Amino acid sequence: MKSLRKIIALFIFIFITGIIVTVVSINTTLNEKNPTEVVKAKDSVYLIKAAKKAV
């Protein structure tokens, strides 16, 4: 019975350690100060006007 408690305690320790490592890893990834890429939309008004003239 004592060995069963030790095994359960070991699994609980590994489980909690895994959760903590995962949370810290995700938190550091989200807190990086890298500038996000800005997607610039090209002006397509001239294409719409050209399409209307062609029709």
Descriptive overview:
With 55 residues, the chain is mainly alpha-helical. The chain has one domain. The chain has helices at residues 2-30, 45-54. The longest helix has 29 residues, at 2-30. It is rod-shaped and about 85 Å long. Keywords: Membrane, Transmembrane, Transmembrane helix. The chain crosses the membrane at residues 7-26.
Quick description:
The chain is mostly helical. Helix content is 71%, strand content 0%.
| Rg result | 28 Å
Helix/strand/pairing class, anyone? mainly alpha
Structural domains: how many? 1
Overall average residue pLDDT: 82
Major beta sheet summary:
none
Shape call: rod-shaped
Distance between the termini: 85 Å
Number of strands: 0
**Percent in strands:** under 5%
Q: Low-confidence stretches at least 5 residues in length (pLDDT < 50)?
A: none
| SSE pattern | HH
Helix content: over 70%
Q: What's the tally of helices?
A: 2
Transmembrane segments: 7-26
Keywords: Membrane, Transmembrane, Transmembrane helix
